[in-house]
Amino acid sequence: MNPLTSSDTSTPLASARHQLREAIDHLGYDEGTYSILANARRELTVSVPLRRDDGSIETLTGYRVQHNLSRGPAKGGIRYSPMVELDEVRALAMWMTWKCALLRVPYGGAKGGIALDPRQYSVGELERITRRYTSEIAHFIGPDRDIPAPDVGTDEMTMAWMMDTFSVNAGHTVLGVVTGKPLGLGGSRGRASATSHGIGHVSLAALDHVGVARTGATGAVQGFGKVGRGAAVFLADAGVRVVAVSDQYGAIFNSNGLNIAALEQHVDREGTVVGFGESDPMDADALLLLDVTVLVPAAVEGVLTKANAGDVRARAIVEGANGPTTPEADKLLADNGVLVVPDIFANAGGVIVSYFEWIQSSQSYWWSEADVEEKLKERMLHTWEQLRDRAEADGRTLRATATAIAVERVADAHRLRGLYP
Ligand code: GLU
Q: Tens of pLDDT along 84-98?
C-alpha cells in the first residue's frame, strides 16, 4: 500500500496525511506540494542505553522528527510514552507545523519522544535517560534549529535536564534550546498553564458561537493531567458546570458540577480522580458520549472514531489533545452538527507561550504574568475570529479551514524561498 495515497485513516499519520490531502485539493495545489509536505524534512532515530538503578543495562529507542523548517526553526514537544513510535512522531510533528503556521508563530513543526512508560523508572533513571537522549540529538537541536518542549509524560524537570546537558556540552548556558523550563531557569510566567488557558478561552468563544450562556453550560473533560486539569479549573472558574472528568484510572460524574478545587486536592493526595467523594464513578468511555455543552478530549490521539462519534451528544468539542478525532469521526460529527474546534488551534496556547519564552530568553527580559496572559488571549481570540469567519465563508469545517490556512502559509514560504537547487 502506498502510504502517500492510502485512504486508510486508522493511524495518526494516516489521519494527518488525509487532512493534508484535503487541504491540498481544496487549495488546488499540485502533487509536488503534497509530497513535500506529506514527508518530514529530517528524522532521527537514536538508541538510548540506560544503566538502571540495579546495575543492569537497558536500551531504549528515541526519535526526533523535524517536519518542516521553511518558516523558522522546528518546534515541538518530547513525549515519554509506551505508544511512541516513528509514525506517531511524524504525525505529531506535522500537526506542529500547521499549529505554528496557523497561530503565526515563526517556527516549523517537530516532535520527539522515547518509547517508555515513565512510571516504571525512578527519577534518577529518567534523568539519565533524558541526558543521554539529549546528547544523542544534540547536533540536531538548538535555539536556531529545533526547540523541544514538554509533551505527554515530560515536564519542566525534563526540560531543565535537557537544557543543562546541551549547555554543558556547548560550554555555556543556552537558555533558548528548550521551552517549558522551570521559572527559576529561564522559564516564562504563564507557560505551565498556557495550553489549558488557551483551551479555556476557545471553549468560551465556542459556547458563544453555539449560543449557550456559560452559566447555563456544562462540560466534560477527558484527561486530568497537565492540560485537562487546568482546562477544568478555567471552565469552572468561568461558571461552566464541569460534570465529569477522567484519567487513565477511571472517570467520575456529578450532575450538579464537580467541585474542582476539592477534586484537585484529592488528586494531589491520591494521584487519581477515582474515589473523589462528592461524585459517582462512571465508565471512562461513556464520558465522551455525555449530553454536555462542551467536551474537551485532553488525553491522547484517536479517542473519537467511527465507532463512537455518531453517539456524541456534546454541542461542541474543543480538542485539548493532539489528534483525538479520526477523519471518519470528523465526518460523523459534522453531519450531526457538532462543532469541532481542532487541536492545531485549540491547544496552541502551549506553543504560543513557548514562543514568548524563547523571545524572553533571547532578550534576557522577563515579562509579567499579566502580559503573557493578555498576549496569549489576544492571539487565540484573534485567530478564532479569522478561522470562524473563513470557515463560514467557505462552508467548511473549522479543521478543514484551519489546515488550509496553515498549509497555504507553509506552501507560500516554500514558494517564496524557491526549491534548492
Ligand atoms: N507539546 C506541546 C504541543 O503539542 C507544546 C509544544 C511546544 O511548546 O513547543 O503543542
A: 999 999 999 999 999
